[in-house]
Design a protein that fits this description.
With 467 residues, the chain is an alpha/beta fold. The chain has 14 helices and 22 strands. Strands 1, 2, 3, 4, 5, 6 and 17 form a seven-stranded mixed β-sheet that branches. Strands 8-15-9-10-11 form a five-stranded parallel β-sheet.
Length: 467
């Protein structure tokens, strides 16, 4: 079995890479250890979590806000089993869609665990012990990432859960303790808070959403606190003990040191990040180099130090985002076909799918200050946006950061309803090197939330109209 390309892993990076390679005429095969395609994202990550975020948001709207709109539906009743079925239907639709696309593009599929046996050779071991050896000119590693474990804490996916277990709970916990105030912890904490859980988030750092704009983090924390989520920042978890009758006792203390206290929870969610998944790939045997964080080292063309072996997505440096992996998959496929693939890492959006959403692209104020780049900032609150007022969704703001000399947009940060869609406008603008003036002089439809983006761009030069 000889191929031009074998891709190990069919998450967003892997399956997109395989499809693009096939479109370009390369004989392509994929190796997938799961029964279904789509990787973590489609099976136990992005897609199921967004389904539950959508469903839980609708539940809260009906429970708390419909009456404000003149809609009387009584007291909504939660059918968690049906909500989970809704989530599973979304997952199945997406994974089957990927299976269809691979077949449509004549990509050959091998189910089993892939191991690189040497340059140009991938061994596939199926669950029943069957063994196949694939010969190929090129290998792309796209095996994604796994949850980061907390030392000394055992995840049983029942009482102490990862994001996987948090998407499968069969009852709403009375008390949910989330370890980690990053994207995953805040999204899943929001889901269960809406459904009735008392949620406490414990974070080692002194802020939520580490790595995102500082002002965004502060306002977002205030919004989530107002919604009912409690935060214990600058706090470390020193132990988790599962009770004999269920539940857990979580011992915490100040990150800087100090007296310990014990918190009780029915469920503990460990959400402290993700690590590259490279287990069983045979990387040490073939000599593929990794850094001190376990990430595969590659050059600007995604090539490892071993000829013919490439890597993309969560297993290499950069943000662990599905769309970043997809773009890398397209880029390496085009390179292998003799074209010029490219990814602009300065314009990769990041979105938190809570309500309101948080979205960002480009540099934060902290990064610009650290790099000594002079900039102007324009900010516009949704309290002054007509559509947000009409909808009753006035939490948040848009902030545009532009170079002080050239006015080129360097970063945009949004807290607000539909921020994940609003950020696309500025991502396109930044891809074309737009200035804040370019965005400000572009006619935006009224009444829309997008007008807040225009007004923030106007505010860069202190000429916003509606504030």
């Amino acid at each position: 079995m000889s191929y031009d390309l074998v891709v190990i892993g069919t998450g967003p990076g892997g399956y997109v890479c395989a499809i693009r390679a096939a479109q370009l005429g390369l004989r392509t095969a994929v190796v997938e250890k799961r029964a279904t395609h789509g990787g973590t994202c489609l099976n136990i990550g992005c897609i199921p979590s967004k389904a539950l975020l959508h469903a839980s948001e609708a539940f809260e709207e009906a429970n708390k806000h419909f009456a404000d709109l003149g809609i009387d539906v009584g007291t909504p009743k939660l059918d968690l089993k049906r909500m989970m079925a809704f989530k599973d239907e979304g997952v199945a639709g997406n994974t089957k869609g990927v299976e269809f696309l691979l077949k449509k593009n004549k990509v050959e599929t091998f189910h089993g665990t892939g191991r690189i046996a040497g340059a140009g050779r991938v061994e596939v071991v199926s669950d029943d012990g069957g063994n196949q050896m694939l010969e190929t000119k090129s290998i792309v590693i796209a095996t994604g990432s796994d949850v980061t474990r907390l030392p000394g804490v055992t995840i049983d996916e029942k009482v102490v859960v990862s994001s996987t277990g948090a998407l499968e709970l069969d009852r709403v916990p009375k008390k949910l303790l989330v370890i980690g105030a990053g994207v995953i912890g805040l999204e899943l904490g929001s889901v269960w808070r809406r459904l009735g859980a008392e949620v406490t988030v414990v974070e080692y750092l002194d802020r939520v959403l580490p790595g995102m704009d500082g002002e965004v983090g502060k306002q977002f924390q205030r919004i989530l606190t107002k919604q009912g989520i409690a935060f214990k920042l600058s706090t470390k978890v020193t132990g988790v003990e599962i009770g004999k009758k269920g539940g857990a006792s979580v011992t915490v203390e100040p990150a800087a040191g100090g007296g310990a206290e014990t918190l009780q929870a029915d469920v503990v969610l460990v959400a402290i990040g993700r690590v590259p998944y490279t287990e069983g790939l045979g990387l040490d045997t073939v000599g593929v180099q990794r850094d001190d964080k376990g990430r595969i080292l590659t050059d600007s063309h995604y090539a490892t130090n071993v000829t013919g072996i490439y890597a993309i997505g969560d297993v290499i440096a950069g943000p662990m985002l599905a769309h970043k992996a997809e773009d890398e998959g397209v880029a390496i496929a085009e390179m292998l076909a003799g074209q010029s693939g490219h990814v602009n890492y300065g314009v990769i959006p990041n979105v938190v799918y809570t309500f309101p959403e948080v979205a960002s692209v480009g540099k934060t104020e902290e990064e610009l200050q650290k790099d000594g780049i002079a900039y102007n900032a324009g900010k516009f609150p949704f309290t002054a946006n007509g559509r947000a007022k009409a909808n009753g969704t006035t939490d948040g703001f848009v902030k545009v950061l532009a170079d002080a000399q050239t006015d080129r947009v360097l970063g945009v940060h949004i807290v607000g309803a539909d921020a994940g869609n609003l950020i696309a406008e500025v991502a396109v603008a930044m891809e074309f090197g737009a200035s804040s003036e370019d965005i400000a002089r572009t006619c935006h439809a009224h009444p829309t939330l997008t007008e807040a983006v225009k007004e923030a761009a106007l505010a860069v030069n202190k000429r916003a109209i509606h504030v």
